[in-house]
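User: Structure with zinc ion, tokens only please.
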Amino acid sequence: MNFLKQKKPLCPATQVTVNEKVFSISEYEIDNTAAQGQSICGYMNQREQLIRYNREQHIQQIKDTILHELLHAIEYDLQLNLTEQQVHAMATNLCAVFWNSDNKPLLDWLMKK
Ligand SMILES: [Zn+2]
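Assistant:
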């Protein structure tokens, strides 16, 4: 009987700071097949400063989702009025840059202050 046991979150980070606002990061569990084919990957709530992701996704999709919601937090704060398609394209393509081992020297350099 382990139904009361908490699963370890798939994202080890519990918060991210965006323009000096601290957003909590947490997960939820929802079966996409139960959502009538709609893809429910995650969401961001600016007022409550939270980012949530559906843990029932491949780990790479979870990372894409968190980056996607992070971009929403940034674009909302800056009132950029990006479309959903623009946010999706930016997140997915940034993930591709991050995960391409050819880019490691640049990414290592960028991560240092
Ligand atoms: Zn979105």
